[in-house]
Amino acid sequence: MKIVVNTSRKQGKISKYIYGQFAEHLGRCIYEGLYVGEDSDIPNKNGMRADVVNALRELQIPVLRWPGGCFADDYHWRDGIGAKETRPYMVNTNWGGVVENNHFGTHEFFELCEQLDTEPYICGNVGSGTVQEMRDWVEYMTFDGDSPLANERRRNGREKPWKLKFFGVGNENWGCGGNMRAEYYADEYKRYATFIRNYGEEPIYKIAGGPNNGDAHWMETLMQNIAHMTDGISLHNYSFEESWSNRGNASVFDEKGYYLLMENALSIEKNIKLHEAIMDRYDPENKIALIVDEWGNWFEVEPGTNPGFLYQQNSMRDAISAMLILHIFHKHAKRIKMANIAQMVNVLQAMILTEGDKMVLTPTYHIFRMMKGHMDGESVDIDYDCGTAGVDGIEVPKISMSASKKDGILTISMCNTSLSEDEEIEMCLSGDSYTDTNAELLTSQHMTDCNTFDAPETVKPTNLNISFENSTLKLTLPKMSAAVITLKNE
Ligand code: AHR
Fold first, then answer.
1. Strand, helix or coil at 446?
2. Which of 52, 58, 69 is nearest to 127 (CA)?
3. So what's the pLDDT on residue 93?
4. Given this model, what pLDDT does residue 302 score?
5. Alpha carbon distance 118, 359 (integer Å)
6. Ligand 1 pocket, 70 CB below 6 A?
7. 289 CB-near residues (< 8 Å, 6+ apart)
8. pLDDT tens-digit profile of 294-339?
9. What's the CA gap between 81 and 12, in Å, rounded?
10. I need a labelling partner for 462 at 20 to 30 A (CA). Which of 15, 83, 85, 152 fits?
11. How far apart are CA 66 and CA 123, in angstroms?
12. DSSP code of 262?
């Protein structure tokens, strides 16, 4: 296949926040996965697992959403501050009915963000919290002056306010966040958002709880009613093997299951286009962002694990579908300014899985690391026409590609969804001239290959052989693989 990359035809910036993550008080994401406490035998810094934090730092995670998810609308921030032994505990009724001791609260979240060098995105409680509770939380975190709340923060060990840019006003308020009608939520949003004051240097970027999948009425109602007082509207869109009621298994599937997942993942674009069209009508100047703050593959839990913990393995199939979706976000980067994969550790399409003091990096982790050069890059024009791949009447594009330029580096990512055919690629780079290529490949023997605690490196990146002469790249992109090539401007 022949491809032309016109590196001087820029198509708009890919916000780095598209590579954001999500960590909820759910299963073993926060506790065990990220936070083990200061007294743990597992090496930690101020309670945060050193091995996990070090691995995550490699991803240069731009933003982290917390504390939920459904948990956010059941969370009362005051329970998570002060001396740990006196913090009240609660039952996490959303996720497995386990006891939540609140040892990981506001101060611990900001500590984690500092260790990861990532920006915090906090989701507030609309479903079961009060307006006052939300306004007080923002003051507690961000006010530098003399106030009872700011002084309480100081007494709890944090002198200076934290920098908090992103704040979500509720989560899935059409469902676990209160089962509201869109019209009711729009009114509630206005009331809550009014009291989110700006204490810091930068105004708080407010994100409204948006629609699920293709719920056009929810988006239409928000755009009609709250567009004047929101910066972003969220979208939640998960992928399944077939449907919510037939989610499939993360590591046991056949060829049909592989392609069905690809088809399902790609269908996110239909929902994005639907919401973009509504947003364009009310906001032609593109001031309000679409924030895909929950996305990823959602399968049945691993056999024998707590069904409320959403613990699933992660295979080559997840890696390829992640690249497909990230490419879709790149394509729609004019409207999509942030996305947060669900979730960071031990839950759904995770970057990392842990068991006791062991940890493995998932194939999805490798994709995020390989693709990080796209963050804040200028998308460049890429012209290609590829065939399809599939089985039993399911057809998906065989090749997906994206290219961007930043600081004199051109990053090209591509994947081959076919389970049976390699693809010969000849890519002509027009525009600037490049040298110094580097190419990484992620592939494996079988589509169901995963990294396990016994075999943690079954799926890992290797070098991809390429030739680069006269501005032309030549390579073979193996079946079922993903690759990232970087080139330096001469
Ligand atoms: O990510 C798991 C759950 O999925 C979140 O808590 C909720 O917002 C969504 O339904």
1. coil
2. 69
3. 96
4. 97
5. 21
6. yes
7. 231, 232, 233, 335, 336, 337, 338
8. 999 999 999 999 999 999 999 999 999 999 999 999 999 999 999 9
9. 42
10. 15
11. 6
12. H
Q: Candidates 28, 29, 64, 70: which one to mutate for ligand 1, based on the most atoms within 8 Å of Cβ?
A: 70
* pLDDT at residue 9, as a whole number: 81
Retrieve residue 176's tokens: 């676990």
Rounded to whole angstroms, the Cα distance separating 263 from 168 reads 30
Block residue for tokens 């962002």: 289
What CATH code would you report for 12-379?
Answer: 3.20.20.80
C-beta 24 within 6 A of ligand 1 = yes
CA distances from residue 290 to 230, 280, 480 in whole angstroms, order as listed? 11, 11, 31
Domain covering 2-8+380-489: architecture = Sandwich (2.60)
- The pair of structure tokens assigned to 385 is 């026409």
The answer to whether residue 426 is catalytic is no
| Minimal-distance CA residue to ligand 1 atom 7 | 69
Which pLDDT value is given to residue 473?
Answer: 94
**pLDDT of amino acid 489:** 87
Tokens 């960071």 label which residue? 344
Residues 150, 132: Cα–Cα separation, whole Å:
15
Instruction: Return the ligand 1 atom nearest residue 22 CA.
Output: 1
98 CA from centroid of ligand 1 (Å)? 17
Residue 116 has a pLDDT of 98
CA distance 432 to 229: 42
Residue at token pair 């934090």: 53
Nearest one of 334, 319, 331 to 371, comparing CA atoms: 319
Output DSSP code: residue 295. E
Q: Does the active-site annotation cover 159?
A: no
Under-70 pLDDT residues of the chain = none
Assess whether the region 2-8+380-489 and the region 12-379 belong to the same CATH fold: no
- The residues spanned by each domain of the chain are 2-8+380-489, 12-379
Q: What are the structure tokens assigned to 280, written together? A: 């364009």
SS3 of 451, please?
Answer: coil
pTM of the model: 0.97
Alpha carbons 172 and 314: distance in angstroms, whole number: 25
Two structure tokens written together for 289: 């962002």
Count of CB atoms situated within 10 Å of the CB of 463? 9
**CB 161 within 8 Å of CB 142:** yes
Ligand 1 in reach of 293 Cβ (< 6 A): no
Q: How far is the CA of 172 from the centre of ligand 1 (A)?
A: 8
Token pair recorded at residue 328? 């879709």
| H or E segment and range at residue 474 | strand 472-477
Distances (CA, A) of 238 to 48, 337, 474: 28, 18, 35
